[in-house]
């Protein structure tokens, strides 16, 4: 699954930018509060407007403090999937269950320095897990290769528990890095500048998906997935 990130889009033309990638699986929307991360983006009203302007479902990534309070409002605004950071959540299990109860996919994100192992028991409560492959807060950063072993360990945990859990990567995903992510076990890819920096964003989505599918088919985990 390829989820273009509108963080790399033209914010003055969000409706048009959303339509430019209508072949994508989800539209990734980064919400930043200038507290949890040192950047400020958009909030509930913009998400609500965006959800009305596109048929592509919205994949919300909350890089904010107190996601326990705010996540339900983003679902009401039209989000089909909500990712909260475990580093910011007061009660991640309760929050995941509330997100699911409101009809959205529940996803949990880990910053690069946050290990997956302490949260193994939480995995059945989730629909998706996000491994950050850059420090959250800004688009256009270089991919952190040191995250590949963490992606592999996470895929092994998912397989060991027999879970149907999507594994998303976000940060520096491009034609040069997506195959390594797919080989390691990721199956959902957030791509910002690699899509919106291309002359043809829709073609960029197709090309990235093709590279990921080829790498997954060649990887050992892909056969059992």
UniProtKB/TrEMBL annotation:
Binding-site positions, a divalent metal cation: 28, 30, 61, 170
Lineage: Bacteria, Bacillati, Actinomycetota, Actinomycetes, Kitasatosporales
Signal peptide annotation: none
UniProt name for this protein: Ribulose-phosphate 3-epimerase
Annotated organism of origin: Streptomyces lydicamycinicus
Function description: Catalyzes the reversible epimerization of D-ribulose 5-phosphate to D-xylulose 5-phosphate.
GO biological process: pentose catabolic process; pentose-phosphate shunt
Molecular function, one GO term: D-ribulose-phosphate 3-epimerase activity
Keyword Lipoprotein applies: no
